[in-house]
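Sanity check

After download, print the first record. It should look like this:
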Amino acid sequence: MSERIAYLFQQYFNKTETPAERDELMQFIIKSESETSVQRLMEEVFKSNQFEEDPFPAGARDRMLGAALGESVSDHLDEKIIPLRKQASKFIYIAAAVLVLALSFGIYRYRLQKSNETLAAGKLHHDVNPGGNKAILTLANGEKIELNDAKNGKLVQQGGTAVVKLANGSVAYVAGGQAAGTSLMNTMATPRGGQYRLQLPDGTVVMLNAESSISYPTAFSGKTRNVSITGEAYFEVAKNKKMPFIVSFGNQKVEVLGTHFDIRAYSEQPGKTTLLEGSVKISSQNQKQLLVPGQQAVYNIGAKKFEIKTVDTDDVVAWKNGLFLFDNTELDQVMSELGRWYDVKFEYQGIKPQLNFTGLVKKNIPLSKALKILETTGGIKFTIAADKVIIEKK
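Expected structure tokens:
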């Protein structure tokens, strides 16, 4: 038995221990392998103290101990008391009983305090899991299908087209002899905290970001392939020179023959079209603009014209590759991105920090880890509450 434990024991008995010393002693006492050492310490401490009579009525010790600790803990500590009843003198027994009672209350308070601290930590440090593959498919008749809960395989028949959920979690439209002139419209929408992959009947692949939607026919016919979106979507358009692919969003349209591009059309920001490969023609009212790979078009409503700039396309489509990629991004936009993916709201407390962020954050980590990464930039502190994140300036 170490001198350190003997010291801690004496400090506790004398009521001169520090909180850290009390924690250290309690950690030692509650270990089952410490029983013999605890008994020896009780005897040694009380040999230096005189007790002339038992201060407790018969049976009171056990009742008080049980009331203090409850069955599970008192049963465990009774194992420490029983040997003393059999082997110790009356005075040692009385003294030991007093100390065991004191220690028991101490252990009880210690465990209760730690339990409360754990509960409090749970309330103050909520965490939020990242988003995932979630979407709702609305059929032509208004029926809705929760895709994340649906089983793999054929989901439904829409005209001459089968709607199938694939093993990779995406949905594909498999065309097959739909009657001419039949037009059935479907809509896929992702919630906050969701994203989804869709394969249209012509083979075009669409990836929807969180809080986005796309409306489309179950079979393309006529001279053009028309769809409309809200939010953000990445397209890999199947080539068909005879039937241009047209995406409508807000008051803009993007026309392609077959190419890869990203459209960001959330309501709180100007619509952005970014071309990765091929070529696109973008129009709004009487304005038209051709893009080449690496260019991004943003329509300036005040000037009534498109503003074109060269961007890093990897940054633009990082979201579909499982990443948040910030490049001198303002705090509000960063919070908007995180809020949309983790489905949380943000609230500023005190003076709003004027900060920009540059860096990369994986989308598959809990919110607490993502916020911790942002905190390393300095000047800001995040606290996750029940349904929101509090933002404070350091």
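If your output differs, re-run the checksum step. Summary of this record's structure: The chain has three domains: 3-124, 132-316, 322-393.
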